[in-house]
Amino acid sequence: MFLQLSIPLACGVLYKYVPSALPSADVRKVIGSIVLNVFIPLLTFGALSQVHIGEHLWTVPIVSVSTVVLGLLLSWLTYGVLLRNRIPLPAAGAMILASTWCNAMYLGLPITTAVFGEGARHIPIEYDYLGMTPLLFSAGTLICVRYGTSGTHATFTDAVRQVITLPPMITIVVAMIINVLDVPIAPWITSSCMAAGKIVPQLMLFSIGLTLRMPDIQRLPVILPAVAIRTIIVPVIMWSATIWLIEDPMVESAAMLETAMPTMMLTMVFAEKYGLDTSALAQAILASTLVSLVTLPFLAGAL
């Protein structure tokens, strides 16, 4: 299964070496915009308008928020306290982001659906957009302002406005209203949404492949603690909490797998905007992704 997922990932890596190819950064921006504004909303509507309303709508976001809080605490103790005088503030802020927010959609969606089937496709959506993403736009912004060098300021109102205007968030609200009110939907609409949504995992993996490069060995002492927190320490601690909180075995296992995803790619947008060390963050994203290629199959086999 993981070998099948590696094909679009490898295509993204190889695309960079095509002579007539567009710059990888430009391609990632286009893919990111299309996925966020078109295909994820379609996938979200198709999944949540039909899913059975159950405890997963609150237990999965609680696991997500708990994972963020735990990662934030551990990374602050590491980079904000223990290593405070050894690395610059922009690098410390970048590593806090890298330790705290995971790639629940871009990598989590294709892996979760591949391991648990199409019936689990709503788990990454709930984990990301009902938990992590609002915290990224709020707490993540505060971290960026504290450690960044851009001098940009942001208010809580700005963060709320950004979150509620995200197309996936709007789609979640619409889909849940339709679901709760049991509004009939033409089968061709849901089937079209799900067909469009199946494009998302392949595009996401291809986009991740565009970012992969050889890691900078000199950066390893700085980024390794963040990689360990994100891919190993937090998932291990969250294991028992997830089992205690979620009763449904499939939802529990899918949420557990989400906690072990590598660093979220969206953090790079915040790092660039607020003047964090984008080079260090890019290396952390790369290193955590490479490490997850080992840890995720191991975890999937253990669940």
What does this 3D model show about the protein?
The structure is a single chain. The longest helix has 27 residues, at 56-82. The mean pLDDT is 87. α2 packs antiparallel against α9 (187-197) and α11 (220-245) packs antiparallel against α12. The chain has helices at 2-15, 24-48, 56-82, 89-100, 108-116, 122-147, 156-164, 167-180, 187-197, 199-211, 220-245, 249-259, 267-274, 278-302. It is globular. With 303 residues, the protein is mostly helical. It has a single domain, classed as Na+/H+ antiporter like fold, CATH 1.20.1530. The chain contains 14 helices and no strands. The chain starts with a helix and ends with a helix.
Set out the fold topology.
Layout: H1 2-15, H2 24-48, H3 56-82, H4 89-100, H5 108-116, H6 122-147, H7 156-164, H8 167-180, H9 187-197, H10 199-211, H11 220-245, H12 249-259, H13 267-274, H14 278-302
